[in-house]
Amino acid sequence: MLVFGIHCHQPVGNFDYVFEEAYEKAYKPFIDFFYKHEDFKFSAHFSGILFEWFLKNKKDFIEKLADMVQRNQLEVIGGGYYEPILASISKEDRILQIEKLNNFCENILGKSPKGIWLTERIWDTSVLQTIIELSMDYIIIDDYHIVSAGYPFEEGFYFTEDEGKKVNLVPIDKRLRYKIPFDDPENVVAFIKSQKTSIIIDDGEKFGIWPYTYKTVYEERWLERFYELLKKENIETKTISEALKTSSKKLVYPASVSYEEMGHWALNYKDAIDYQEAKSKCDKFEKFIKGGIWKNFFTKYPESNYMHKRMLEVSRKSHNKDNILKAQCNDAYWHGIFGGIYFPHLRREIWNNIIKSDFDNATFEIVKEDIDFDGKLEVKLKNKGFIVVASEDGIVKEVSTKEIGNLNVCLSRYKEFYHFINEHQEKEEGKTIHELKKDISKYKDMIAYDEKTRFFSYDDMMWDLIDIKEDKIAFQKAKNKKVIKLQDDKFILEYNLEDATPIDINLGIHSLNVEEYEIDANHIKFEAFEIGEINLNFSKNLKLKVYPIKTVSQSEKDFDVITQGICISFLAGGELFVEISC
């Protein structure tokens, strides 16, 4: 028996042409093929983001899905509507996310989902409790959840319990993840035939949009040959719920992990290199070698942590939750084989939704708490036009406006394990994206690293917080003074410094092709589609050094060189006012 399924998703804020290409090369041809073969039963998860795009742009596709659901060929799998990591949001928001997708499926496709697609298969017992409370019948996990908890993996279904309430578990077979659609259909079907129950639910994008797969799957007829061989060998296909009804199940208590590759990506670069080396030497004991957990990304990338904690802070105060639910879309908070956090347009969309939701709350606000859980107090001021957040040691972490959003959607330049791949590696067709070899050598001269996190503004002083008002935050260090002022239409930094001090201002401008330059000026202006026009006025002429912040990050195809922002760096002494307006 084969239990086959696909998971399809595009991030909030992704470019429309990416949706269109994924639809034309993967989603549409896959569904069109099996629409003609009603005997092939399968399950599918689509994120609410995709469903909304289909409704707006491809209504006939939605109608086809609904038809397949009604004729019991297709089972729709539920999950979080905007594809959040369920373990990273509040219980209240988890329920809203899951119920929103359930309601959509029932209203548009005619049936409510019985099971959960666990985003990135991030298992956590707090999530388990929520899913059981919502009376969902099953959760999709990986075989790795089972073996890493100390159990021998056997194909088929499992179940677990929490406080005496049980839920079924559907473990994806990693071997099939790596075989489909990369191995010959004959080999794949032979493997399936050798097992009593084979379970594979994997990315729908691998059927046409991953590197080289459109050629393999459709032009070389991989999918057609796979289907014909299943029929020839009399291998029955079932939806998840159908298979669960007739299958025995074993009790397990899964480990708090994700799929195996995620544990590698979540590590810092040194540990990630050691992890790879250890795995290569210990095949027999591989299941005992564990990487990190998904939440490590919050400590690996402080920008991710700050964005996440601001999302949580705003969510606690929000009554209209839709914008904040969008801000929980997972992709921009982490990085693995895809761009993720390295894609500025994804981070910006998360921030846009956080800021919209924040301004929907109280117009004026003074918050004094450790917002980002870094062990230091933050002060947040908000008026009808601006939000500013500064830490107790004087770092300006955020400047946001109601019209534009966060002005500092930047990312620092981090060491990544793949920066240290020295040997020349050729790309190989017919391999899964985890196995494609890439050549970092041609990017070596572009790689640089930052010592400090590129928040909005940073100077070399360790300030003491001395005063907070509704429109200003004051700091002092010996005879040096710094004041942050907030007006309805501008943000002002005031300095009085004994000695010349280096100051950086980082702006989230990604679309301008800026090379490093220096200018003597008391004014500088940038115009970019992502933030419109932004003006920086200085109270005196300064020698300004302007340069792009560029990163080198891996993607499913190769490496990307991406402008993460622009830095304006200068030395200042004595009295200085910096006025920023949009």
Walk me through this protein's architecture:
By secondary structure, the protein is an alpha/beta fold. It has 3 domains: 2-253, 7-stranded beta/alpha barrel; 259-292, no CATH class; 364-581, Beta-galactosidase, Chain A, domain 5, CATH 2.70.98. Helix content is 30%, strand content 29%. The chain is built from 17 helices and 23 strands. The chain has helices spanning 16-35, 48-57, 59-70, 91-109, 125-133, 143-147, 174-179, 185-193, 213-219, 222-232, 240-246, 260-265, 269-281, 297-300, 302-317, 322-326, 344-360, and strands spanning 2-8, 42-46, 74-76, 115-117, 138-142, 157-162, 165-172, 198-203, 237-238, 249-251, 365-369, 378-382, 386-391, 396-401, 405-406, 457-459, 464-469, 472-477, 480-486, 490-507, 517-528, 532-554, 559-581. Strands 16, 17, 18, 19, 20, 21, 22 and 23 form an 8-stranded antiparallel beta sheet that branches. Strand 21 and strand 22 (532-554) form a beta hairpin. Helix 1 runs parallel beside helix 3 (59-70). The radius of gyration is 26 Å and the shape is elongated. The N and C termini lie far apart (61 Å). The relative contact order is 0.09. The model is unreliable at 423-428 (pLDDT under 50).
